[in-house]
Amino acid sequence: xxxxxxxxYFLLLAxxxxxxxxxxxARSMGVSRVISFVDSAADTLIFGILLTLVTxxxxxGAYFVNVLLADFAYITYVRPLAYVLVMGIVFFIxxxxxxxxxxxxxxxxxxxxxxxxxxxxxxxGTVLLxxxxxxxxxxxxxxxxxxxxxxxxxxxxxxxGQRKLRHRNMPAAxxxxxxxxxxxxxxxxxxxxxxxxxxxx
Amino acid sequence: xxxxxxxxxxRLALPAAELMERxxxxxxxxxxxxxLALAPIxxxxxxxxxxxxxxxxxxxxxxxxRFFAALISRGAPFKLRxxxxxxxxxxxxxxxxxxxxxxxxxxxxxxGLYLPMFVVDQLVIxxxxxxxxxxxxxxxxxxxxxxxxxxxxxxxxxxxxxxxVKGTVWxxxxxxxxxxxxxxxxxxxxxxxxxxxxxxxxxxxxxxSNTYKGGEADR
Lengths: 201, 219
Description:
The complex is a heterodimer of chains A (201) and B (219). With 201 residues, chain A is mainly alpha-helical. Chain A has helices spanning 3-18, 31-34, 41-68, 75-101, 104-118, 121-132, 137-165, 177-194. A two-stranded antiparallel sheet of chain B has the order 1-2. In chain B, α4 runs antiparallel to α5 (81-104) and α4 (48-72) runs antiparallel to α7 (136-166).
């Protein structure tokens, strides 16, 4: 495989993870976290950057854990524990990078958001998905980047939708969570249609 | 005065607003009011059997995690609590999976990655985001309430989706064929939870307005 086709394959996998396999809209991973971002796009972006770093590093760590535990008979029982331990190590690595290299005005906010960006369904779900699909190291990196960028985009879209849905004409019973979930359902159908699938009949 | 009577009287002495705030099943249902644990419900709870498996998983993971994580995390730095909660939940996942495999055999695989993913679910670890450490008694009480609240939502969702998609209940045919196949997909799950949440919110609004009206009339 030459370099150009490898880059193309990398991008294709990332775009697939962002759209058709979108963590929030297609698989509902991290949706509980995403609906809690309402007001600040900057906070969502900081969360997205942290999430991308954590997912990529956790994916790489989990890849080597899978290699190490490949012959272990009880791997299905201990897999979440092993991945959570990896995520904890990644938490410290990313925290170190944040404290050392992040712009000083964002350090406090990033350090505050890091635990929530690290321990959530989106990160563990992506890592588990890469393991179950037996992706190679490069594929894992591409899929992790695509998945976390897709989640960040979905979070921004949902936050914007929530702002628009705060209307005084909205029936009281639908204010807040119900209208947000209806909006996510519509986005989910749109993603499904975008990929060319027909709805079951 | 007996302990039970004293407890009942102390509860009655609490103002309605405080009782509502402490209630995690109806007024503060973690799923239909706060939107926690949506991933397994939206995608995996497509049949009654899957819903029952999710309930067992929740029962084995949530309660011990809340209790032991509350004990351990008292002296731990605030930022590490998420990790501690996740580790305890991942340890509880081992007996949970053993039990599910014993009860349901290979059908457990139907839940796919939503089974191991539950160890970092918001419903299990969200308490770590609150600065004040949880008392053991409160952790037990809240863990139990969260498990009941989760079961209260996931079971009807699984039942409705199985009927809508396959026309069956626990695999037994009750109507000739499914009437709403979209319910098997994530978008169908979101749609159903949204409608349930709206209904729940409407009931809460009605009960609250009646409570306050009743209170004013008493005065």
